[in-house]
Amino acid sequence: MAYAVEPHQYTLRKPIRFGGIGLHSGDMVNMTIKPAPENNGIRFFRHGLGGKHFVQAAMDNVIDTRLATTISDKNKKIIVSTTEHLMAALLGFGIDNADIELDGNEVPIMDGSAGPFMHLLMQTGKQKQNASRTVLKITKEITYTSGDSSLRILPFNGFKIDGEIIFNDEVIRTQRYAINLTGDRFAKEIARARTFGYVEEVEALWEKGLALGVNLSNAIAIHWDKKSVLNEEGLRFSDEFIRHKMLDLVGDLALLGCPILGHVTACCTGHTQHLAFMQAIARATDCWELVEMNSNGKPAAIKRSAMTSTTTSDLLIPFFRPALAQVALAPVC
Ligand SMILES: [Zn+2]
Q1: Calpha distance 66→145 (Å, rounded)
Q2: Active site residue 271
Q3: Which terminus of the chain has fewer CB atoms gathered within 10 Å of its CB, N or C?
Q4: Which domains are seen in the chain, by residue range?
Q5: Ligand 1 centroid vs 298 CA: distance in angstroms?
């Protein structure tokens, strides 16, 4: 299965259920991912509120990017935190349409990676749908920089990411990873990488009543001495940290609402920069086009009505509704 060149939309074959604690609250959360019709996208529902209220997994619904990505509907009836690992698994497995029901405000953190989501998605399988996929095809470079963080996307006939992180310690140091997300590379190389943090930072968060669900079964804890990890089992990959950062990036970029044809380079970024980058992309309307894929996986059938309309931004809804949050932007295209 090549990422983003499948011409058709997909949903799950049948519902999948997960249970686990939430990263912030530490409370038990039950989650069911259900198949959904064509052009539905990914929507989150709150158990007990009925089918009317939901929040679409979209960048304009992001309300918080500290520690994790949090989305909400306009009335704040439904708040869903820590969307990134689940969204990465859905995108990595090629699911376009799903309805997700939760009985809490958080996606369960599971083991701190997207591995458990990916495992059950692969076991369950996906169902091909008739509707064509809409794909964001980058046609010119778009960049975003903020302090030491930078993100760039270039035209590329696939989805490729180069990532780099620089930490001042002896465990992470500088790590780089490059991946062309084709076939099962996401599942094998990225999905199982866990979230991480420094012990003293986690303790400070606990004192503020945050990150109450974090423990050694769902995060890599870097020791006080910054030379080792506390987890007895050690690391899953020697460069697990950069792999997890790329998992977060994939999961956040999934909030654009459709797959990307482009080559992303990310240096020292987190959820806040990912959101600002998506906003920069959304505004750079002459640097991309929406395409459909023909049966041999090549971009075709450009949606010319959208490209030539004088109300382009309206026609792009729901793909790139500019977020309401104002973040300093530096798009260069
Ligand atoms: Zn993460």
Answers
A1: 18
A2: yes
A3: N
A4: 8-132 (3.30.230.20), 134-316 (3.30.1700.10)
A5: 32
Task: Yes or no: say if 73 and 61 are a contact pair by the CB < 8 Å rule.
Answer: yes
Q: Which residues pair with 292 in a beta bridge?
A: 134, 300
User: Residue 200's pLDDT is what?
Assistant: 87
Q: Which residues on neighbouring strands pair with residue 176, listed in sequence order?
A: 164
Q: ω into residue 318 within 30 of 0, thus cis?
A: yes
- State which residues of the chain have pLDDT below 50: 1-4, 301-333
> Is residue 28 a contact partner of residue 102, using CB atoms and an 8 Å limit?
no
The pLDDT of residue 297: 59
CA 247–ligand 1 middle distance (angstroms): 7
The alpha carbon of 39 and the centre of ligand 1 are apart by a number of angstroms equal to 27
Annotated catalytic residue, options 24, 85, 271, 274: 271
Q: Per the confidence metrics, is the pTM higher than 0.85?
A: yes
pLDDT attached to residue 42? 96
Give pLDDT, residue 49. Answer: 84
User: What pLDDT shows up at residue 295?
Assistant: 63
* The amino acid at 206: W
52 CA to middle of ligand 1, Å? Answer: 30
